[in-house]
Amino acid sequence: MPTPDDDSTGGRIRRERRRARLSQRQLADRLPFSYSLLNQVECGARAASTELVAAVAAALRIDVSLLTGSAVTDQLPGQRADIVRPIREALDLYDLAPDVERPTRPVAAMAEAADRVCQQVRATHLRTAASALPDLIADLTHVALTSPSTEGWRALASTYRSAHDVALKLEHRDLAALALERMGWAAERASDPCLAAIRQYKRALSWQDSELGLRLVQAGHDTLDGQSSREALAVAGQLHLGASAVAARARDRAGVARHIEAARELAARTGPAQSIHWLGFGALNVRLHAMGAAITMRQYDDALQQARALRIPPSAMTSRRARFLVDRAMAEMETGLGDTSLRHLVEARAVAPEQTRYLPRTRETVRGLLHTTRRPSERLTRMAAWVGV
């Protein structure tokens, strides 16, 4: 007996019908085709004709491509793997004997390139950053192993950090973890406490175990012990923001408040410091983390109130602006403001499509909107198809 296939046209018709909150009988009543035929198509017993597909799309008020599977789906899992594969190879070859024939740029030029890639990630130009990383990692590895210098090791550590960020945003967590290991290896050789602390910050966010996450944050603070530069203060503040995120996962409101306040005090001392290691640290980042923590703790009314009081300046990093819009959309969805939530998701997509598409909260919000909307609009169904829900 045929079984339904979610990747077939019949499976897509069934999925979109359910999203529209219609039974097979209700949908068939809107078609110039029989209930029996629709049932057979959905269960895989018969192929869907072009005419049936067009009629279903018209009845559901959706694009035909959502039923045929030809919707725009750039960077699906296989394509994301193609983007990160050269990065993975570069990380795997970190200890290979250097190629003596490899032409290299001056270390200062490569350090500038590493900083530029980090900036591209913050601007959510992920494909641009990903395409530059393999050669940059190879060049810096060659220089670090043949003519080691603090500047070279520091630039290599920064490049590994960017590799981690790209891999994480594209949902390759194993590669992100590997990149952090390499970052620690290079930061140790650079004798750079700030880079070592940033690594601990990123490690802390990757663990769901809150106790372990806080231990990693503390390890970052220990690395900065005795450091009083503006750079070190900004990194320490970011560590506190990381701790607030970890505490929020544990529903530790007192812990969240304590770390947010510590970060706020450091932000008052550093002033806007978003270009320091491209962490985006400053008073705005503190407020964004406070709002994000409220969402994690399911304090949606509080989060929405904070969101409405925030004004994101044009100078804010693109990644920060997009994350804010997605967080606000989730708070709005959870408080019953479906139309406004979808509007902010669409805005986030326009601001930073690559980042917005893969943020877990984007998918959570879209699923929530589909669940709570009786008749999903074409705009919502297109958004759902775009994020793969």
UniProtKB/TrEMBL annotation:
Could you give a GO molecular-function term held by this entry?
Answer: DNA binding
Enumerate the SUPFAM superfamilies for this protein.
lambda repressor-like DNA-binding domains
Q: What InterPro entries does UniProt report for this protein, alphabetically?
A: Cro/C1-type_HTH, Lambda_DNA-bd_dom_sf
* Gene3D superfamilies from the UniProt entry: lambda repressor-like DNA-binding domains
Residues in domain HTH cro/C1-type?
13-67
SMART domains according to UniProt: HTH_XRE
Q: Which domain of life is it from?
A: Bacteria
Name recorded for this polypeptide: Helix-turn-helix domain-containing protein
- Record organism: Streptomyces odorifer
